[in-house]
Write a structure and sequence with these properties.
- With about 700 residues, the protein is mainly α.
- Among the domains are: about 180 residues, Alpha Horseshoe (Serine Threonine Protein Phosphatase 5, Tetratricopeptide repeat), CATH 1.25.40.10; about 150 residues, 3-Layer(aba) Sandwich (Rossmann fold); about 140 residues, Winged helix-like DNA-binding domain superfamily/Winged helix DNA-binding domain (Arc Repressor Mutant, subunit A, Orthogonal Bundle).
- The chain is about 60% helix and about 5% strand.
- Strands 2-3-4-1-5 form a five-stranded parallel beta sheet, with helices on both faces.
- α7 packs parallel to α10 and α17 runs parallel beside α20.
- It holds the Pfam family TPR_12.
- This is Cdc6-related protein, AAA superfamily ATPase.
- One of its GO terms (molecular function) is ADP binding.
Length: about 700
């Protein structure tokens, strides 16, 4: 079943509405209107003996009165840079009402550094920019980010940066903003941006004892003070090493500290010839904690290093290890108690530190047979494919008969109560799913790779992420070709063509669609052939070649009708009407829209029926039939409100405002525009700018001074 989606805005501009043109089946698609100001900081950690550093950070902030402040917190591995940055961020967060943004830049993660392009996409979405309006290129995203943040009080925390180039695009432009960066490196390339630096050194002896005292209790520490002091020195007064050791001791209240000291000293002697000094200290503490785990917890610890992303939930963990969800949650709790994992605010887990993941990765290579590792990866990838497919069916029930046949089939598949739950899961797992496509290819699971990339289309359709989806689909296309499956190759060519068209890379999109067209003709897939021809019409519309677009879309709608594909005929007619409205041919557009409505009447697709109503409202308004326009727009507004679609509600209200303005009802027009403005949410989103400009133009025409 061909997918027919594009991001071309034709006819009367309706903002995100046209770009979300293939949302099916009453999906509750929420945009920034339903979101509060972002509050992304992870939970505040316990901090010991960093009063001087906190005071230094406060002083730097007091000095920066009229420029954005960028502070680099640097120091050796395991010294507690993240804990310090998070603590200070929580202390000052109330001064930043427009949001607190957080990103793990994964400078030393086995998953590879995060790209600033990817982080900017997440930041812009969190700040209220509709995802379908987020540009694809890094420079464009960075420019939009600066525009969005120019007058906002935002706090940005960028953890574990690798290079200045990774950080530079993520710096907000407002003089009232503060950015905190943590890194092992000095990042001197940021000096031109006014970066200030705070160096975090190891604990002194008393601070190390304070950390142990907080974990073990004063009585136990005082009774074994000498051994505690030796332990602090063996851990080189590094908070990470001390925290791991303290977690193990806390779980064994009767265990003498002297035994831990002896074991740790022996461990370090063994490793001393293999690693640099700081790594020896942390590795020895990790080895001791690992050997204290029960066998099933130790096995899970090793296997978790095979996960494709940097966060994992209980369901994914159960699939990876081949255990029940209840057992997975229990073991994840054990590993968290041992300070090897950290639980996150969204109910998932991650390794406590990049070095901890590296430790687990080395262990799984050494202790688990290749066959066992491959089975674990296969179980996880199969679960991701099955669960993503379930979410896809919730969101797009019209996509049927799709191959989803990874092996081995998962024992348990996560299901969803409705489309909104499915969309939330897909978005929360986006980084993991994208990484899973690559992981599947790397492990020779080509079928799983292309099918997972295909199943992710619902996520990309509703949430955008244009650049990221091109990367996923290029991997999926390569996997399909490796399978020697022309059907899979044709589908992935279509997917990639739609994504490239959305990014304005029209020549590349045409090449992909023509490649798919050749495959469908060779296979005798007439309906898919027509779908590719329609897509070529959408590229023509995106290029502004309305004559070619109308010709192709007219032919495609007639061909779909001859094949009895009513829904595809209807959607093609909506496309055609949009192009006609761009040529001020409102009456012709109405004819096609009425036909589309008739064809959709028997389809469970209330969202697209409401879209037809909004298009008809604009078409009737441009033709001077205010009564019909009002009727269509208000009916569509009711449906969009029932569906929970902020995009649809704003578009309908904007249409009603335009209609009221055309007919001289200026007070009503202003109310409609203001209501649409409020729905767009964050005060610096693109949707907000567009409607605000419409309102400003209206007020300039009427001589009214209007402020928002």
């Amino acid at each position: 079943m061909s997918e027919i989606v594009h991001n071309d805005v034709t006819g009367v501009v309706h903002g995100p509405l046209v770009q979300a043109r293939d949302v099916f089946g009453g999906v509750h698609f929420h945009t920034a209107a339903s979101l509060p100001a972002p509050s992304q900081l992870p939970p505040r950690p316990r901090l010991v003996d960093r009063e001087a550093a906190i005071a230094q950070l406060d002083a730097l902030r007091a000095e920066a009165t009229d420029v954005p402040l960028t502070v680099l917190i640097t120091g050796p591995v395991g010294v507690g840079k993240t804990a310090l940055s998070l603590t200070w961020a929580h202390m000052i967060r109330s001064d930043f009402p427009d949001g607190q943004l957080y990103a793990d830049l994964r400078g030393h993660s086995g998953a590879g550094p995060a790209s600033p392009q990817e982080v900017l996409g997440d930041f812009l979405q969190s700040l209220g920019v509709p995802t379908e309006l987020i540009p694809g290129e890094l420079a464009q995203r960075a420019a939009l980010y600066r525009t969005v943040t120019r007058d906002q009080r935002v706090l940005v925390l960028l953890d574990d940066a690798m290079t200045a180039a990774q950080v530079r695009p993520l710096l907000p432009s407002s003089s009232a903003s503060v950015t905190v960066v943590t890194s092992r490196y000095r990042l001197t390339g940021l000096l031109m941006h006014g970066m200030r630096s705070v160096y975090v050194d190891r604990f002194d002896a008393e601070a190390g004892l304070s950390l142990l005292r907080a974990a073990l209790g004063s009585d136990r520490l005082e009774q074994q003070h000498e051994a505690a002091s030796e332990l602090v020195e063996l851990c080189m007064r590094l908070p990470l090493a001390l925290s791991v050791a303290a977690a193990r001791l806390a779980a064994r209240p009767s265990w003498p500290l002297r035994e831990m000291v002896a074991a740790l000293a022996e461990e370090q002697r063994t490793l001393a010839a293999l690693s640099i000094e700081g790594d020896v200290t942390i590795r020895s503490a990790l080895d001791l904690s690992y050997r204290a785990l029960r066998s099933n917890a130790a096995g899970l610890y090793r296997l978790l290093s095979l996960t494709p992303g940097d966060r994992f939930g209980g369901d994914a963990t159960a699939a990876l290890a081949g255990i029940s969800r209840m057992e997975a949650r229990r073991l994840l709790g054990e590993l968290t108690d041992a300070n090897l994992l950290t639980d996150t605010a969204d109910g998932r887990y991650r390794f406590h530190h990049a070095l901890v993941r590296l430790h687990a990765s080395q262990l799984v290579e050494a202790e688990d047979q290749r066959e066992a590792r491959e089975l674990a990866v296969g179980r996880l990838l199969s679960w991701y494919l099955a669960t993503t497919s379930c979410a896809e069916r919730r969101l797009r029930p019209h996509r049927t008969r799709l191959p989803r046949d990874a092996e081995p089939p998962p024992a348990e598949v996560t299901d969803f109560g409705g489309p909104e739950d499915a969309l939330m899961w897909l978005e929360s797992e986006r980084a993991n799913l994208s990484a899973a496509v690559t992981l599947a290819r790397e492990h020779g699971r080509e079928t799983t790779a292309w099918q997972l990339a295909d199943a992710m289309w619902a996520l990309f359709l509703f949430m955008g992420h244009h650049v990221e989806r091109v990367e996923v689909e290029e991997t999926g296309l390569a996997a399909a070709r490796s399978c020697g499956d022309p059907y899979a190759e044709g589908k992935m060519l279509n997917r990639l063509g739609l994504s490239l068209n959305a990014l304005g890379r029209h020549d590349e999109a045409v090449a992909r669609f023509e490649g798919a067209l050749e495959i469908w003709r060779r296979l005798g897939e007439r309906e898919r052939e027509v779908g590719s021809l329609r897509r070529l019409g959408l590229v023509a519309a995106a290029r502004g070649d309305h004559g070619a677009a109308i010709a192709r879309l007219t032919d495609a709608s007639a061909a779909f009708q001859a094949l009895g594909a009513d829904r595809k005929t209807a959607l093609t007619l909506i496309d055609l009407a949009g192009v006609l409205m761009a040529q001020d041919r409102g009456p012709d557009a109405v004819v096609h829209l009425e036909r589309a409505r008739q064809l959709l009447s028997g389809v469970d697709d209330s969202y697209n029926r409401a879209r037809v109503g909004i298009f008809l409202g604009h078409a009737h308004a441009s033709s001077g039939d205010g009564n019909k326009a009002n009727q269509e727009l208000r009916a569509a507004l009711d449906v969009m409100a029932e569906l929970g679609s902020s995009v649809g509600r704003a578009a309908a209200l904007e249409g009603l405002g335009n209609l009221a303005e055309r007919t001289g009802r200026r007070d009503e027009a202003r109310r409609m525009y203001e209501a649409a403005l409020q729905i767009t949410g964050q005060t610096e989103s693109i949707g907000h700018f567009r409607i605000k400009e419409r309102l400003a133009a209206f007020d300039r025409h009427t001589g009214v001074c209007h402020e928002t």
